[in-house]
Amino acid sequence: MGLVLGILAFCCQTYSSILFLRFLVEMILGLRGSARLPRLAAALAEILFAITDPAIRLARRVLPPVRVGAVSLDFGIFLSIFVFSTLGVVLNGLRSI
């Protein structure tokens, strides 16, 4: 049972790292403006977005973007990172019991 919990904890922590990488990519794309990405970077970003979209869409249903004037603040990615990081820590703690 400890091995299964360890593997699940590793998967959750890895996924939270991938979600954080998506956050960084979104920030870079936002700062980049309308300039296009090189082909390889665009392909990697597309894969990254495809992997992380299900969790972020679910988090956006739970915590929809907040409108502040003309800006919309999206906390879905932070909620996803928090949930998967916490789940990884809890599973890792249960493994050692």
Properties at a glance:
flat; single chain; mainly alpha; two-stranded antiparallel ribbon; 97 residues
Give a verbal description of the structure.
This protein has helices at residues 2-32, 39-62, 76-95; strands spanning 66-68, 71-73. It has 97 residues and is mainly α. It is built from three helices and two strands, in the order ααββα. The chain has one domain. A two-stranded antiparallel ribbon has the order 1-2. Strand 1 (66-68) and strand 2 (71-73) form a beta hairpin. The longest helix has 31 residues, at 2-32. It holds the Pfam family CCB3_YggT. This is YggT family protein. It comes from Pseudoclavibacter caeni.
Brief write-up:
The chain has three helices and two strands, in the order ααββα. With 97 residues, it is mainly alpha-helical.
Q: Would you count the extended β strands for me?
A: 2
The DSSP helix count reads 3
| Structural domain tally | 1
H and E string: HHEEH
Sketch the major β-sheet.
Answer: 2 strands, antiparallel
**Which outline best applies?**
flat
Which spans of ≥5 residues are poorly predicted at pLDDT below 50?
A: none
How far the N terminus sits from the C terminus, by CA atoms, comes to 11 Å
- The spatial strand order of the largest sheet comes to 1-2
Organism: Pseudoclavibacter caeni
Transmembrane segments: 71-91
Protein name: YggT family protein
Keywords: Membrane, Transmembrane, Transmembrane helix
